[in-house]
Structure formats: structure tokens, C-alpha cells
Amino acid sequence: xxxxxxxxxxxxxxxxxxxxxxxxxxxxxxxxxxxxxxxxxxxxxxxxxxxxxxxxxxxxxxxxxxxxxxxxxxxxxxxxxxxxxxxxxxxxxxxxxxxxxxxxxxxxxxxxxxxxxxxxxxxxxxxxxxxxxxxxxxxxxxxxxxxxxxxxxxxxxxxxxxxxxxxxxxxxxxxxxxxxxxxx
Length: 184
Hints:
Layout: E1 2-3, H1 6-20, H2 24-28, E2 29-30, E3 33-40, E4 43-48, H3 49-55, E5 68-73, E6 79-81, H4 86-89, E7 96-99, H5 101-108, E8 113-114, E9 118-121, E10 130-135, E11 140-146, H6 150-155, E12 161-168, H7 171-183
Parallel strand pairs: 7-10
Antiparallel strand pairs: 1-3, 2-3, 3-4, 4-5, 5-6, 7-9, 8-12, 10-11, 11-12
């Protein structure tokens, strides 16, 4: 596991700031200790510094991963958040969208959110902000990008896209299903 270079750290923090704003500091300096980001094979892991010290005794070739995978860098150098980061980002999210129960399944199948499926939206959402998508019972469902601001949502027609789908908790099940389908 290696440290992220300056360029990759900047790209990572810009992506995180899109979803949690200035709360990145709270993600690193937590009450249970300091946390950091490490990279292995273009994947970024979020790990406690105490675990990092313990893992330093394991040879790098024998270490597959450590901590929680937050996402990966694409070949073009962009960072793509993974759904495993959802539970860590949810408490610090600034822009949120809540879905009606009838729209939850559609979002979990990878579809965008329409106004007809919108239950609530945070007041401060601007167009193209990163948003966390929740069920009406405050269960985090995934990530998205706001297609319209809060003010535009009030005037939009029911079939207009409100949030573009980025990642959801149903991805793991879909990817596992694809894996088993290809093996059969």
C-alpha cells in the first residue's frame, strides 16, 4: 500500500468535497483516531493509522487490501467512488435526496430519479452537485448527481430527471449475478 501522490490526493479530495463539502477533515480526524487514504493497484482504501501500522509488518506482495475501498482511479486519471464508501460519507453529506418507496426499486436497478419518485430534497442543492440518495426511512441507497437545483425541481414536470444515478447498494447484487451468469 502506497501513499497517494499530490495529484491523486487532489482528485480524490475534489470528488469527496463534491459529496460532503468541507467535512473531509471530519472523515480523517475522527473521535476513534486518525484515518488516511492509501492506494494499491489504482484502488483507494480508507484505513485507520493504527491498522496501517500493524499491516506494515506484512509484506506488500502478501497484502491484498486493507481498510475500506473508497473507489478507484480510472485509466484517464478520474476517481470513481465505490458504493462501499456510502456508509462513511452518509453522516457528512450536505446535499440529500429522499425517494418515495415506489421509486426506490427503480433507483436500485440503476435508473435515474424522476420528479415523480422524489420524496424530499435538501434546500441547498445546486445543479450538478453530488447528492446522497436516501429512502424515506433515512436508509442511504446510493450516490447521484443533481440534474436540477432545488428551485428547478419545484417547477419540473413529473417525468423530468432530478438526479443522475452514479452508484447504488444494488450494484453488488447485480455484479454478483453477472459473475454467476458468466460462470454457468
